[in-house]
């Protein structure tokens, strides 16, 4: 059924009236049919407008990678897992990851990784009197990923890994020493890329981009309160005066960024 527009009336968008409504209109007196027609048209237009608003409000899907397998801290923490410590602190999201090396021996059997991590944690909690291990994650030379700092692997736990930039970041430590000319196992860098892709993807961060982080400590490379532009996948030395994560691992960061981006489905 076509409704004629009076001369001089404002032009409106064509409205589709369902066939069932047209049948009903044919059975009604003229005035009643006109009333039903107006109500039907108004309902269709309101429904279309609401659908358009919902489509505009719907956020774009985040480019997240799959969650890699992560060995829980209970595997390495032992008795430390029952120690009373302050509750974890959290940020709102993770905008960047900092890559470290642990500056420990490389010639270890991967079955020894839990013992080595326990030793590293003891050095931080007993010698330095920290409340927990500083790194959020550790990766051994066989590509196994371990949960580090307590608080939940899928949550934005505030770490203690990059002075000045512990907030809104995650610290990933490669188990070993990767100074100049030291081979870095590909399985290790692949695991780091997968982990970084997943953590950054939770906030839809491209690992190849630059992000702005605010320094919280003047002992970093930036004065406290400075908004610094840093790589979303950074080396420890990008935020702090250090040789960490070592020249050999630093040289691999570009390919780690590229792989992480591909794992997020980016081109």
Topology:
Blueprint (H helix, E strand, L loop, with lengths): L18 H8 L3 H28 L12 E2 L2 H4 L18 E6 L11 H15 L9 E3 L5 E3 L21 E6 L11 H16 L8 E5 L12 E5 L1 E3 H4 L7 H4 L2 H11 L4
Parallel strand pairs: 1-4, 2-5, 2-8, 3-5
Antiparallel strand pairs: 3-4, 6-7
Helix pairs in contact: 1-2, 5-8
Report on the structure:
With 267 residues, the protein is α/β, with parallel strands linked by helices. It is built from eight helices and eight strands; from the N terminus they run ααβαβαβββαβββααα. The strands form two sheets. The protein has a six-stranded mixed β-sheet with strand order 1-4-3-5-2-8.
End-to-end separation in angstroms reads: 50 Å
What spatial order of strands do you see in the largest sheet? 1-4-3-5-2-8
Number of strands: 8
- Any idea what the shape is? globular
- Helix fraction? 25-40%
Topology as a string of helices (H) and strands (E): HHEHEHEEEHEEEHHH
Structural class comes to alpha/beta
The main pleated sheet reads as:
6 strands, mixed
- Bin the strand percentage: 5-15%
Instruction: Report the total helices.
Output: 8
Q: Residue ranges: pLDDT <50 for 5 or more in a row?
A: 9-61
Mean pLDDT: 83
Radius of gyration: 29 Å
């Amino acid at each position: 059924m076509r409704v004629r527009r009076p001369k001089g009336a404002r032009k409106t968008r064509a409205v589709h009236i369902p066939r069932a409504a047209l049948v009903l209109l044919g059975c009604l007196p003229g005035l009643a049919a006109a009333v039903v027609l107006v109500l039907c048209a108004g309902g269709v237009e309101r429904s279309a407008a609401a659908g358009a608003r919902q489509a505009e409000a719907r956020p774009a899907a985040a480019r997240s990678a799959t969650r890699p397998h992560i060995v829980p801290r209970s595997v390495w923490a032992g008795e430390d897992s029952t120690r009373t410590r302050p509750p974890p602190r959290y940020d709102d999201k993770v905008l960047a990851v900092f890559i470290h090396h642990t500056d420990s021996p490389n010639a270890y059997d991967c079955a020894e990784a839990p013992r080595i991590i326990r030793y590293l944690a003891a050095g931080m909690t007993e010698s330095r009197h920290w409340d927990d291990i500083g790194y959020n994650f550790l990766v051994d030379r066989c590509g196994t990923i371990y949960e580090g700092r307590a608080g939940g692997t899928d949550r934005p736990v505030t770490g203690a890994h990059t002075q000045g930039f512990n907030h809104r970041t995650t610290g990933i430590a490669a188990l070993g020493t990767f100074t100049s000319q030291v081979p870095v196992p590909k399985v290790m860098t692949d695991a780091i890329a997968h982990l970084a892709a997943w953590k950054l993807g939770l906030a839809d961060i491209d690992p190849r981009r630059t992000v702005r982080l605010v320094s919280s400590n003047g002992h970093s490379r930036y004065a406290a309160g400075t908004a610094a532009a840093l790589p979303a996948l950074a080396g420890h030395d990008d935020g702090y005066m250090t040789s960490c994560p070592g020249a050999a691992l630093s040289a691999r960061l570009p390919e780690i960024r590229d792989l992480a981006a591909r794992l997020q489905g980016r081109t």
